[in-house]
């Protein structure tokens, strides 16, 4: 991408709001050196930390701190950049930013917009778009695994994988276009250049990248896990067991939970947003419970996974109740496409006699069943029996692969682009298998696949998309 020079200089507080030991004000643009001389009272040696007083317009000291000046293009944004590191009180930071704006009034200094520093880094070829997004993902990472994955993407691992795919597609396109340009050669292109074999290699490589991106998407977004079932089956107890803390009120009274209770936990680095809901039943005792049940179904409609809890004592004595059977049927029709249901049979500690026979000494295990719910996990939320097994099954049903160190912290737009590229490569394979071997259609599918791949790194990106991406960054980044 060609660098786009900025006509103005921008400034912002680059550290989070609130009090801290250190705060940073960042300035970027052609007048950063002018601002440095006005505030520091002297020119700064490039890339060398200088401890000095920061001066206001009257020459009085605002604070003492460290000033760093990075001449472009060897800076984060590719422009001249000034960083002023002072004490991290909000008043001090605001005074320092105000002083920067006063000193730069005549040269057009203005406040930076959200994400504008990183946007300039992208426009000046310091980062591609996937790397720029990884900067925000690293800041927002909620787990250590997500942070490590974001750091890999920021360093360019994801971009390198995409560029390798693009180069393979370009090579294949070049051969196709050459054959289209010289039809008189009567060369059987598909056989002479092993185009089908090359295409299969690209499709396999793309499948691997997509799999890694899916894993990274789990790390970034996490999963919404809804606990559903009749009143008093132990949903709140299970939330507490999974979270390892007493978050929800637990009583023997049916219908204790009237509204959603949400807690985020980690399993192998994946954020799981566990949502405890009001018990599902037709005969709500009052208006509050009725509203709570409506909100339960709303949460289920947005869930990635639903845990349908059933009371073990009732289940073992009477089988699946009519109410639970109805819940099963309604869950299947209410969930988003592809969202799995795990049937969790709770309170096995209350059925020890039956459990000694069925579970082998009350040990929980997975029972493979027939019908729409192929997996049941038998647990005791009160004693913790089976909780580790439930955690394992949650990861299994979402497709998480343990020890996946190479995951790219992908966003939904990355997954959509990879899926679209995969679809066009599949269509190209169909063209190659047709008897007429329409090379012009084959070439067009390759071109479309390349465009979708390039959109990930920003080779072909609309200004509207850039605006959407960078305005979600924090100010100062």
Automatic annotation (TrEMBL):
One of its GO terms (biological process) is tRNA wobble uridine modification. It is an enzyme of class 3 (hydrolase). Mg(2+) binds at residues 236, 257. Its cofactor is K(+). It comes from the Bacteria. Homodimer. Heterotetramer of two MnmE and two MnmG subunits. The keyword GTP-binding applies. This is tRNA modification GTPase MnmE. It comes from Cupriavidus cauae. Residues 222-399 form the TrmE-type G domain. K(+) binds at residues 232, 251, 253, 256. SUPFAM superfamilies: P-loop containing nucleoside triphosphate hydrolases. InterPro entries: G_TrmE, GTP-bd, GTP-bd_TrmE_N, GTPase_MnmE, MnmE_dom2, MnmE_helical, P-loop_NTPase, Small_GTP-bd. Its EC number is 3.6.-.-. GTP binds at residues 232-237, 251-257, 276-279, 380-382. Binds 1 potassium ion per subunit. GO terms for cellular component: cytosol. Exhibits a very high intrinsic GTPase hydrolysis rate. Involved in the addition of a carboxymethylaminomethyl (cmnm) group at the wobble position (U34) of certain tRNAs, forming tRNA-cmnm(5)s(2)U34. Signal peptide: none annotated. It holds the Pfam family MMR_HSR1. Keywords: Cytoplasm, GTP-binding, Hydrolase, Magnesium, Metal-binding, Nucleotide-binding, Potassium, tRNA processing. Belongs to the TRAFAC class TrmE-Era-EngA-EngB-Septin-like GTPase superfamily. TrmE GTPase family. The keyword Ribonucleoprotein does not apply. (6S)-5-formyl-5,6,7,8-tetrahydrofolate binds at residues 26, 83, 126, 477. It is found in: Cytoplasm. One of its GO terms (molecular function) is GTP binding.
């Amino acid at each position: 991408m060609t660098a786009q020079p900025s006509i103005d200089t921008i400034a912002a507080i680059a550290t989070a709001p609130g009090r801290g030991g250190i705060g940073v004000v960042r300035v970027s643009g052609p007048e950063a050196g002018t601002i440095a001389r006005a505030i520091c009272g002297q020119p700064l040696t490039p890339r060398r930390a200088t401890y000095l007083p920061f001066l206001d317009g009257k020459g009085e000291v605002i604070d003492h701190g460290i000033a760093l000046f990075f001449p472009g293009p060897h800076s984060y944004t590719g422009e001249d950049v000034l960083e002023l590191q002072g004490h991290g009180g909000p008043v001090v930071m605001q005074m320092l930013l105000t002083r920067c704006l006063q000193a730069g009034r005549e040269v057009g200094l203005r406040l930076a917009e959200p994400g504008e520093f990183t946007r300039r880094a992208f426009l000046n070829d310091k980062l591609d778009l996937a790397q720029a997004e990884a900067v925000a993902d690293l800041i927002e990472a909620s787990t250590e695994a997500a942070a490590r994955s974001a750091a890999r993407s920021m360093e360019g691992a994801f971009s390198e994988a995409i560029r390798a795919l693009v180069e393979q597609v370009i090579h294949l396109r070049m051969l196709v276009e050459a054959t289209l340009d010289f039809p008189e050669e009567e060369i059987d292109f598909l056989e002479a250049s092993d185009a089908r074999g090359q295409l299969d290699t690209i499709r396999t490589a793309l499948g691997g990248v997509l799999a890694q991106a899916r894993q990274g998407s789990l790390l970034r977004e996490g999963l919404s896990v809804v606990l559903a079932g009749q009143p008093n089956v132990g949903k709140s107890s299970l939330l507490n067991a999974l979270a390892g803390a007493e978050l929800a009120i637990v009583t023997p009274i049916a219908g204790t939970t009237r509204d959603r209770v949400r807690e985020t936990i980690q399993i192998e680095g994946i954020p799981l947003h566990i949502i405890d809901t009001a018990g599902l039943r037709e005969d709500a005792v009052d208006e509050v419970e009725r509203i709570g049940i409506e909100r339960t179904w709303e949460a289920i409609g947005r869930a990635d996974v639903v845990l349908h809890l059933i009371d073990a004592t009732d289940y073992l004595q009477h089988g699946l109740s009519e109410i639970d059977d109805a819940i099963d049927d309604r869950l299947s029709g209410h969930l988003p496409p592809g969202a799995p249901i795990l049937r969790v049979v709770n309170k096995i500690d209350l059925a020890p006699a039956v459990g000694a026979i069925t579970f082998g000494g009350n040990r929980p295990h997975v029972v493979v069943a027939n019908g729409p719910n192929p997996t049941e996990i038998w647990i005791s939320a009160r004693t913790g029996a089976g909780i580790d097994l439930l955690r394992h099954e949650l990861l299994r049903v979402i497709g998480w692969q343990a020890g996946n160190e190479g995951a790219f912290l992908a966003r939904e737009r990355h997954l959509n682009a990879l899926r679209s590229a995969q679809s066009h490569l599949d269509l190209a394979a169909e063209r190659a298998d047709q008897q007429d071997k329409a090379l012009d259609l084959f070439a067009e599918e390759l071109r479309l696949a390349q465009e979708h791949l390039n959109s990930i790194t920003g080779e072909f990106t609309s200004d509207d998309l850039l605006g959407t991406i960078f305005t979600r960054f924090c100010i100062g980044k």
